[in-house]
Write a structure and sequence with these properties.
Layout (H helix, E strand, L loop, with lengths): L6 E7 L3 H12 L6 E7 L6 H11 L4 E5 L5 H9 L9 E4 L4 E2 L3 H9 L8 E11 L5 E2 L10 H4 L11 E2 L1 H10 L7 H12 L2 E14 L10 H13 L2 H13 L8 H7 L7 H8 L6 H10 L1
Helix pairs in contact: 1-2, 11-12
Length: 296
Amino acid sequence: MASLPHITVLMGTRNGGAHLRQQLSSLAAQDHGCWSLWISDDGSTDATHAHIRAFARTCPNPIVLLRGPQAGASANYLSLLCHPDLPPGPVAFADQDDLWLPTHLTRGLTALSHETPAAGQAYVPQRLFQRGSEMPRLLPRRTPRGPGFRNALVENVLGGSGLILDQAATGRARAIGPVDVPFWDWWLYLLFTGIGTRVLQDAMPGVLYRAHDDNLLGPRQGLRASLWRVEQVRNGTYRRWIMANLAALEPHIGALTPEAKAILHPLLPLPARARLRRLSPHRHWPQDRLALWLAA
């Protein structure tokens, strides 16, 4: 097999000093060494910049530090992905507080090297979950029926941490440009399943998700996580997320596949609650489908 290509790692940071050094060390420990790191910092006031500068002094790979738009994590990552000077080629997304296993880039680039569909490919690693000092365990996938456009309209199963895009998929996302959406990785899942990008899910773990109280989406496991998700549905936050995604997608409906257009067109004239009722069967788990229907 030909040698694997250079890849640009995209990392959004904001006050990540408590976790950043370990994540940078896991990047330096990758067995694929042909990478550069682009960081968009969104107004950190802690030791984040100091950690980045210290890493850049000892790391032989190129490090680019940019000033983020300071409009939230989604805007930060999408502005980084769409930066006009971003070098061509595949990209990988890194959270500031997770860890990459040493073979992550190699596994992802190898998986993406076999085919190149017109709309590109996206590689999603399996993730390990760890809270505090407990032993890491596999984070179950929430895709029993596999990824798809109908599902992407109502939930995100494509976690952004560790996501790798080939050059074609990167180009398609950059052609759309930054959009105003609540979550950048949910937007990419929606866009890619809509335009026909192949989503490859690896059964082997590549990322250690380190859960803590400052995670953007709150607790991820246990009773607290369930109650948090119920509250987002109850107070209308979840409905607003879905409507924001649809509003961002509608101007680009011409880029969608015929199948995706056929799904989306009947939804657009409907009011928000009717859309939720129509979409509720497409969440993966029965309790989630019921919760969405009741919220509508």
